[in-house]
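ASSEMBLY PREDICTION REQUEST
Request ID: AP-0331
Submitted by: J.K., bench scientist
Number of chains: two
Total residues: 479
Priority: normal
Notes: Please return the full assembly, not individual chains.
Input sequences:
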Amino acid sequence: MVEQRDGEAPSFVADLSRLAAFGLPNEAQVIVEAYVRTSSMRFDFGTIGAVLQPADTVLAEIDRADAAVSFRVKVVDSTGRRGRLLAFGDQIRPREEHDQHEPYPILPLDERDLGQRLWTIEAGADSSPRLVVNRRVPRLGEQIRQDPLVQGLVFPGAVRAVLQYLLRDDVNTEQEWVGDWTEFVESLLGQPLDRSAEDIDELVDRVLEGLADREGWVQRLIDNTAEPEVLDE
Amino acid sequence: MSDPVRRLSLAGRVSFSEYIDALRLDGTLPPPLDLLTDATKSAEAGFPATVEREPLGRKFETRLEFGRYLVDRLAPQNRVDLSFDIGLWAWLALYYFDQLCPSSDGRRKAEETPRYILPERFQYTRYYRHLVRGPWLTCAIHGEASRVLLIPIRRSEHPLASVGEIYAQVAGRQGVFRSKEVVAAVDRLYFDEGSGRPRSGAGGSEAGSPRRLSKVLKQFELTFDLESEEPNLITSILPQEFSRWR
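STATUS: Completed
Returned structure:
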C-alpha cells in the first residue's frame, strides 16, 4: 500500500507474509524494488526467515513525473549460487489506502495531463494495460468511475484497445494481466477465448456486446433520467 | 579564484532557461553570469562550499576530473538531498557554462535544457543527463569505477559538453546505473589501463558492446539480482559475445 501526503514523496508498506508459504530457504534475501519506467529504488526486506519492513520506505529517488509506481519482489539466493533469483514477482500494483479491501481492478485508472486528449490506453508487451484520463478535465476520473454515460462512451473503445494488445501474437501469455484479461473476456463470451480466431473484429464485437449487456449502461441512463413517479395521494 | 556555491532561485532558473532558448536562435549571446550573484535570482547555498572554474589552472580534461572535484567540494552534504537540489545544479551549470556549452568561432550550440537545468519534478531519464549532476553523482556512487563512464573513448576538445557513449548506455536505467557491481563489471570489461581510456571499439553497437550489454543485462534481470553484492557475478554470467573484452 502506498501512502502520500501533500507535497511529500510517497512511502509504502508491503505485506510479504505470504512468501513463507512458498517453501523458500530461510536465508534467502528479500528485496523490494519500486519503479516508474527506468527509475527505481531498492529496499532490503531482510530474509525469508525474518522479513523486516525497513524503517524508511520513502520513494524519494523515484520519478514523480506522470506515471504510477509499480513494485517487483525478488527472493535472492544467498547460499548456493549467490545473486540468483529464487522467486520473482513483477508489475505489482499498490493498493491505495482507501481500497485495500477491494479487489484489484482489471483496468486500473490513472489521471494525468494528456494535452487535448481525453483518455488513452497504455499497454505494452511487458506491462499491464491502464486507462489514463486527462486530469486537466475536472471530475473526468470521477465520472469514469461513476457515470454510466461516460463509461458507455469510453469503455468500449478502451476495452477494444486492450483486446488488440491481448490478441497480439507476441504477447507473453504467462503474464498475470494476460491471464486476468483472458478470464474476463471468456466470462463475457461465455466460452473459451480462441486466440487464433480468423475474424478478430467479430470476436471483439462480441466481447463489447457482452460488456455492454453486463454493465447495462443504456438501462442505467434511462433509469437515471426517468421522471420520478408521482404517487397518488 | 574561488567562489561560494549558491543556488539559482525559481526566477533565476526561469531567466537561465530563457537564455538557453534564446541561445538556440542566436548563438552569440553571452551567458547571463550576473544571475550567479544577483540576490533576486540566486541565494547562498546554505553550506560552506566554494568552487573554481579552473582549479588546476586549466579547464577540466575529463568528466571524471570534474566529477571528482565536485564530490570533493560538496563532500559534507547529504548525497540524496544534494542530488535533488535543482537550484544548486542550475547555478553550477551556469557557473561552468563556458565548459558545458563552449563557444566555437564565437557561437555556442545549446543542448536540450535539462542538460543545464533539471525539471522541477524528478524524471530519471532527464536528470541523469544533467552535465554537472551526472559526473558528480557517478563519482559519488561509484568512486574509481566511474572512470569508464566519465572518460571519453577519444580525447575531446570540450569534454564536459556531452555525456559520452558508455555513460549514455549504462546510466539510462536507474537500477543499472545504481548497481556498483554492474558499473564495476563495465569498468573491468571496457577500460584499458594502458591508455587510461575505455578501449577503442567500446563505443559501437556490435556484439559485446556496452549497448549490447545494456540489453543483455535487462534479460538477466529475470534470473539474477544484478545489484547483489557478489563479486564477478556479472562477468561470470555474460555470454560468449563479451569474451573478447574479458
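REVIEWER COMMENTS: Chain B has a mean pLDDT of 90.
SIGN-OFF: pending second reviewer
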